[in-house]
Fold each of these.
Amino acid sequence: MRVGIWRLLECIAQRGLRASAAINARVCMGPAEPVARAMLDAGWDFMGHGYHQAALHTVADQQENIRDSFNALSDYTGKPPKGWLGPGLHETLDTLDYLAEAGFKFVTDWPMDEQPVTMRTSSGPMVAMPYSMELSDLPMMVVQQHQSRVWLERAIDQFDRLYDEGADQPRVMSMSVHPYIMGVPHRIKYFEAAYDHMLQHDDVWFATAEEIYDWFTERE
């Protein structure tokens, strides 16, 4: 958060792109607020990621945590957040209902498919957005301890296949990265290289998760 985030911000801004930030709501009101401000100024979308960093099944009041996250992000950004990525992707049987009740529209806790999927909740539809654990830097670098170039090879392989399939039907490719992992000096060049590879191709839409949600629901 002190160093790596600025490398990620610079990489994305230099290429004229924007991203979606899954953020603990308390970041917007604590010592790390300048990080939240930089992402907001860069035009990034904010997604709920808990009020603080704790899996939802461990918090005292899950419903309150979700509601407080929604309200804090709404107040800070000036608009209600649409997306949610739970800390650790953890949910309970009640989570989707609580998310929809609070006002969230889509969730990325369900790593499946390469297209959005609509699910039912007690408070209306909830869209499950594509999210790939296979391209997340946390399991690859921290848990499985792959060498950094393996992430780049996998990202390129994923993109190339989806790009070919996308000629017939749209496909969504997500890359989940963390400032303290992909933003370190010995890995950032692989993140940059992945974008440079994708930018060489025509007919690729570099969209935020919120933009994909809007596109999907307008055509559903």
Note: The CA atoms of residues 17 and 206 lie 7 Å apart.
Amino acid sequence: MKHQAVIFDVDGTLLDSLEDLADSMDVVLRQNNFPVHSLDRYKYFVGNGMENLVRRALPEERRGDEALVAECFDRMREEYANRWNAKTRPYEGIPELLDALAGLNVRMSVLSNKPHDFTRKVVGELLGRWRFDYVFGERMSVPRKPDPAAALEIAGLSGISPGRFLYLGDTATDMRTATAAGMFAVGALWGFRTADELLSAGAMALIRNPLELLPLL
């Protein structure tokens, strides 16, 4: 096989988590008497870390209020901790893909801009039957995606050349991360963003269901 390893994004790629994220943020917005948002709007709020989700969800004229952003971020973490698994589930076809990759001895890791503690929690509890070499969320010591540092860290720890990695994600952030790291960028069309966005950000292939990843190995 040309590729020996896969890095997965989480939200919008492995897990359909949008409703739990949206429900949590909407609670925070209501607490502040701010307008709430549709699920379609949340598709464009997520992907660049929870702090950015919070900032984007706030009324435009309040997004520069750093004290408010920090307060709402703390509340968002509390709300999400209480409901992160209420509706979140693996996408259809993801269990079968992970089974197939494990059977082929393909190395698997996870890289998300979700806070590191939440990333490890959701992967451990909802995807715990599969072995992932590394599960990294956003960490203070490493720049968040699309900076390639964490993807290259996984490659280095794995002892596998970046060029032997497939990188599967659903946003421009993921495609730019993969491209910057020298990995093969694959866009997941079942996720939160459009084909046009993924292609313009450097996707080398687009797939409509998870098992379509296998021929790309």
Note: The radius of gyration is 17 Å.
Amino acid sequence: MLPFALRPPGAKPLRFLFLGAHCDDVEIGCGGTILRLAREHPEASFAWVTFASTPERRREAETSASRFLEGVKEHRVEVNAFRESYFPFVGAELKDHFETLKRHEPDVVFTHHREDRHQDHRVVSDLTWNTFRNHLVLEYEIPKWDGDLGQPNCFVPLPRDTVEQKARLLLECFPSQAQRTWFTADTFTSLARLRGIECNAPEGHAEAFYLRKAVL
């Protein structure tokens, strides 16, 4: 399969924007891709925005982001305190906040899948498309109770050690989630293995995204 490569516009370094409704969403959805991008594009700008948190989870999120972005020269991490599970009811406030994110001027935006069954995830996805209309947007997936995993069409192959590093960092950085029966290393590595099969990844693992629009 012929791969597409991310290339910076002109001589400028790439600018990535990662959006997550909750404190571990970005890491679960595209943590392996972040680790790969950080290695391959250390000169790039990485902006990371989380919308819902508590004081405890804020500390976890900031620690996690710093570890996933280790070695990156320029990164900005923003953790907000919108009320979890109520995003559809605070849409105006979220929309106003999304408008402020235009300052990051991203080349690539990572966000939630539009068909995700979690209401907060869907709102973030809808507002992403509403805000960033002329951008490359990649929608990531989150395994959970809803059983809403679909058929993504864009894959990022990952080395096995990167997948294992992602799982390890998630467990180390988010102890508040340890009681959740699904929040385990094999959840994250198993999904990466399945997506690796689907794209015939060289080392058998990948993260998958929904790519709705692209220009060749």
Note: The chain is about 40% helix and 20% strand.
